[in-house]
Amino acid sequence: MDQIEAVFKAIDEQQDEFIELLRESVAIQSVSADPARRDDCIRMSSWARDQLRSLGVETSLWDLGNQKLPSGQELPLPPAVFGVFVYGMAPDFTREGGSIPVTLTIQNLTKRPVMLLPIGASDDMAHSQNEKINRDNFVKGMKVLAAYIFELAS
Hints:
With about 150 residues, the protein is mostly helical. Helices cover about 45% and strands about 10% of the residues. It has helices at about 5-15, 15-25, 40-55, 100-110, 135-154, and strands spanning about 60, 65-70, 75, 80-85. Keywords: Hydrolase, Metal-binding, Protease. One of its GO terms (biological process) is proteolysis.
């Protein structure tokens, strides 16, 4: 079995653990379209940083500034989570979820190209209170990200 197939097999075997992590993450009601949930979005950034750190990834949170709402109110944007995990060098890519317009902000701040690896479906109701993701999409998304990182490391 080649290395990437071994990674895919490990993902399949640990699906329940990954789903439990997903369950823990969605318990943080980080609805990015709801200004009342902004603190939860910021908490989600910290949660993601802490999860990566628990795996030994050197991480940091990057301040993205503020968002001005149509009402004129300004709210802090959730910080971006960056990690060093490819042979000890900072990668030139960003794995980002949530509001897609923020990727331009990340690209401008880092002066690096940004690539999204979407794993959702058109009926996932992204950014709504009833947002969902199919288990199969979640598992396949992990495999896509693993294959991408594997290719970068090759």
